[in-house]
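Ticket opened by: R.M.
Priority: normal
Category: complex prediction / small molecule

The reporter submitted a protein together with 6-O-phosphono-beta-D-glucopyranose and asked that the result be attached to this ticket for the collaborator who will pick it up next week. Submitted input follows.
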Amino acid sequence: MSDTTSIIILGASGDLTKRKLIPALFSLHCKRRMPDPFHIVGMARTRSDTETFRQMLKQGMLTLAPKYVDPKEWPVFADRLEYVTGDPADSESLHMLQTTLDRLEGEFQGGRNRIYYMALPPASYGSVLQALGRTGMVDSTPGWRRVVIEKPFGHDLPSARSLNDLVHEVLNEDQIYRIDHYLGKETVQNVLVLRFANSIFEPVWNRNYVDHIQITVAESVGVGHRGRFFDQVGVVRDMFQNHLMQLLSLVAMEPPASFDAEAMRNERAKVLRSVRPILPADVAVDTVRGQYQGYRQEVGVDPHSQTATYAALRLRISNWRWEGVPFFLRSGKALAEKTTEIAVQFKDVPHMMFTRSAGQGIMPNRLSLCLQPDEGIHLRFEMKVPGTQAETRSTNMEFHYASVFGPDAIPDAYERLLLDALNGDASLFTRADTIELAWGLIDPILEGWSLPGAPPLAIYPPGSWGPEEADAFMLDGGRVWELGCARHDA
Ligand code: BG6
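Result attached by the on-call engineer:
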């Protein structure tokens, strides 16, 4: 008896479905990694039918993800796509969905496994979960039932807690897959392999050798058509609460005993528990906030908006490994380029015998984890300039994924995450406690920024590296923001 698997996308008429979910599922199908048999059922309030849905997805893929369209495989895949018009918070509509699923699953005798993917506006998560619970559609029999929830998960700690409570009324924690797509990125997972599958890095990965760590998630685009959403959220909720906190946990966590979901998630949570919150009274020293020039003229943005499109934070981790090592995190829209990097800046050598020709000091070693777009790892070290007596120059040892594994070797993050959810592996998904711990670090910052006397919002020109205040903030401790991922062999 074979099991059948249905992937039900709630809110299927939105951008996420055609931009990310369908290309990822199609790619898995082409690689023969989908469970067999499978069905994908899209549901949304937009009145449509299966044929139009299939056409719309094909068009979407041709425009947004053309490299994924394999003309031989598409018709086979498209045959598995169905559409149901309806509101997923409404029992009547869910009844229609159930009828479609019964028809699709009917011919199979084994388990009827289902994943519900909430590609919905966050405000409707609660009512949709309640409707799924009320109608018995998430009762795990016969077969398993899982629910994937997109970010943002809450907008502060109290709302995240109530959403978690509501989720737990309907589902067990092991049925829930809260997505943070950064954890699905190949290079982000490689942080753990680099640290824990090599013996040379871990001995120096601590306060004895590391001066500080920088995490940069820079985007060159502005808010585009998401002005209304972004203006209510801001960069700290949109990027730091989730993506940057996850990067911080991976770079700072202790080695888990095994590569299993709970062991990994325990270690990630432990790091966030050790981060000292930036209290409202400290935002003037430990944060910088900025907004790009012209943001207030973007569609959907309040012309007097105080929303930050850029932020830099200095965080400290109170544990044996990291005491005294600052972590600098920055992220912003409309910056000079799109790049995501983690830079581990090592300490100066204890005694210097050499000088540089220009009279500057020798640069300390830096290990740059280049997460995107030119994925790789760069290590900066000093070399003797040939023909000189003892002059030194910094150089880079570089690894590029594209050169070693080929230009298309890195799958999209959604591909990995969907596959893991299908296989029941929750390691790369966020647990309830981690979400709440991260909000516990974000809320006091936002509170501090809203108080009288908070540091003003610094306006920065689009295409720059953010407000000058962010450089001054680093210089204060004698440090500078550094980007180590530019290709040096070009
Ligand atoms: C999303 C944010 O979670 O991540 C967006 O909501 C941001 O504002 C995006 O642009 C960045 O993702 P990536 O994968 O392009 O770095």
